[in-house]
Structures are given as C-alpha cells and as structure tokens.
Amino acid sequence: MTDNKNIKASYKPAVSRQSVGIPPARRLCIAPMLDWTDRHCRYFHRLISQHAFLYTEMVTTGALIHGDHRRFLQFNAAENPVAFQLGGSNPRELAVCAKMAEDYGYDEVNLNVGCPSDRVQNGRFGACLMAEPELVAECVAAMSRAVSIPVTVKSRIGIDERDSYEELVQFVSTVAVAGCETFIIHARKAWLSGLSPKQNRDVPPLRYDMVYQIKQDFPQLEIILNGGITTLEQAEAVLQHVDGVMVGREAYHNPYILADVDRRFYGETQEPRSREMIMELLIPYIRQQLELNDGVRLNSITRHILGLFHGEPGARGWRRHLSENVCKPGADINVVLEALPARI
Which residues belong to the signal peptide in this entry (predicted)? Predict the structure, then answer.
C-alpha cells in the first residue's frame, strides 16, 4: 500500500495563489466539451458571464503540429480568460503546442488526463495516462519550461480498478512536483473499457469526498471539482471544500445559469444581462462572422444558443424556429431576428 505520509512529505508546494493576492479566476469554470465549446460557444458564454473561466475543446498535439493550427487556435480576445486544452503524451510535442497556445494569447494550457474514449486511448492520451503519473509529470515539466502561463491538469479520481485514494494521492503528488499547481478533478473514475464516454459521465458514482480530501492533504494546490454540478447553489456548497467548480453540460443546455455567476462568485454588483440583451450583443457578432466568408455557417453559431430561453415562456418556439430554418439555403441573420418574436 502507498505510504501517503511519505508522498505528501516529499511534495514541496509553491507559494499559494491566495497568499500572493492572485484572484481566484477559476472559481467557476465551464468545462472543455468536445464539439461544443468552440470559439462561437465561448463568445456567447462570455456575453452571459464576464468572469467565468472558459476552456476550449480538447485539441491533440498532432492536429496542431500537422494540421491547420490557425483553425484550432484562433479565438476572439473578448473570450479571455480562456484556457487551451491539449491532448497528447509526448513531452516535446506538448511543449511546442503549449508555446503555440501562449503565443496566440491563451491564459492557461490544460492537459487532458480525463477523457476515456477508445480513440483517445489509442492515441495514448486522456484518462489512460492516469496509470502513468511519471509520464504526465514529464509532460507538465516540459510544457512549464516552454511557457510562462499556468500549465494545469484535468483528470479523473481514478481508472478501472486503480481507483484508491492512495493512487490518486500518488498521481497528484507526482505531477505537482513537476510544476502543476492546479488540478481539475472529475469526481468520478473512468472505466477504460465496457462503458462509452457518455456512460462514463453518468454511471461511475460521484466521489466528492475524495476531491475534498485531496484539497485537505494538499492545501497549497488549487483544486477544482468537476462532475454533477447543475445549480449555482450546489456550486456554492462545493466551494466550501475546494477552490473552484467546473460546470459542464448544464452550462451548455441551460446557458443562462451563468447569468448570476459574476455577482455570486466574483463580487460584481451589476444586474445580470437579460436574455434579450445578450442576443442584442450577439447579433453583431453573428453578422460579422457570416460576412467574413471563411466557412462559418449560421448553424455553427446558433446551435449553441438553442437553450438560452430554457424554462421560459416561448422557449419551444425559439428552438423550433432556429432548428427548422438555419440550414435552409440562403439562411442569414434574419432567421435569428425572426426567432425572437417567434417565442411569443
């Protein structure tokens, strides 16, 4: 059995963010979600909350190094603060890609050690890397040497049968020594075979207690809890035990949940923007993106806003009008303009 006391004794933490007056930017984060949190989605979310910490979809090192890196890296400066999430396991390649993200203006580089899909495992990255904490530490060290922005890790609490608290401590302490001061921990383990990625988001039970204990045992680390957060009240309760929370699917399907984030978690005093005001601010962005003629289609933006009026009168009319019209030939900004009165 792992000796927790020896592991924690060997970990020499850096000075805490709080002790040097750095604001808790990651107090509430929106999870990186493949095919969802693209640049249009992030711009939309930023109109709702000015302070929530945003994350890109995961992008592999191969896609950046051998593909059209501009397509993956470009974003609107209005999105900041925003982190770029990388998938990979080659320290040298990760260092190159981390530097690319820093040069483009991202505020953080995050290493994915939590995705359990077969495709990710075949590429030797994602959750399977939890079985190789020394390799993850090498990756973090290489990335940290290449950039001056924070390098963070998003993981699970464990994988398969390797889900003891001792093994989680071993992982966190090994990677922390390499220079990672922020861990975003999905409070479920991942089954690398037998469950789909979707099932891995729901079937393994949530173990908030393990994440809370990590914060107690490593008080100088910034610990962000991910998994099962669906209300701001729940987020506030979790924040009694850790430094931050990460909201995933709820923020996408019901984005207006973010409207009160700035006031409740960042001390803002202004009233939240109304849904209608958010659309007034988004419409010029949609116009601009369609006029750029770089392949942006109306649906690539409007698919992210279907849930804006979730729970409100007329929400069904809003969704129906957009869904039925955005893909028609010649669809333009008028589809969105007409969807607003369609709610009535």
Answer: none
